[in-house]
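Limitations

Structures in this collection are predictions, not experimental determinations, and the ligand pose is part of the prediction. Treat each record accordingly. The example that follows, with thymidine-5'-phosphate as the small molecule, is included so readers can see exactly what is and is not provided: the inputs are given verbatim, and the output is the predicted complex.
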Amino acid sequence: MEKGNSIYQGKAKELYLTDQPEVLWVEYLDQATALNGVKKDKVVGKGQMNNQITSKIFEILADQGIESHFIEKISNTEQLIKAVGIVPLEVVVRNFAAGSFSKRLNVEEGVKLPFPIVEFYYKDDALDDPFINDMHVKVLDIASDEEVKEIKELALKVNEELKKLFASVNIKLIDFKIEVGRDAQGNILLADEISPDTCRLWDMDTNDHLDKDIYRRDLGDLIPVYEEVLNRLNTL
Ligand code: TMP
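Predicted complex:
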């Protein structure tokens, strides 16, 4: 497989073409951002942590019957993925109140929700990724009713598997964000990454943060925390 030109530089990943049109090459970068890129720092070692964690999680999800764009990890910081057209939604699932949910609705962080909820945010940096509902998704022609139903079902299924997976390494899954894409046949496929950048993970015994809130809230050094998550996942 040959690495081609860079086609996209995101906040924490860079995407390259390959000699196969249906395959892309991703490099995870040593970069941390928060507040839609307003806070930004180089964090040496973060790229390889997130690549390894995401690869491990996508492999486990595939074993449980949830396919994603992930093909294979090719180095500590790189993976090959299936090319998909990303649906411009950040799909958030919440099991416990935290973050923007707690702020917006004045519910204390850590309160268990009676059932998991799915939220949509419109992926648009210029608009600061606004919170939207199913009707906005339809009116903006982001996805059809059928796709919205499918995306919600997928998000909840991923939640069930991730909850089990993290519980087995003594971690509580507070909330997380996924992205989905459409493959060449138009099928909805789990995409992007699943890592401590995109999940809130609390230690089950201490409620210590094992995720990017360490960086967002200036709680300390991010690398030992991500390393802890990777080490726990590597015991599986
Ligand atoms: P929030 O509480 O800030 O809305 O975040 C909910 C979850 O989604 C949390 O685990 C972090 C994740 N997330 C991202 O991965 N990217 C984003 O841009 C946002 C807003 C949230």
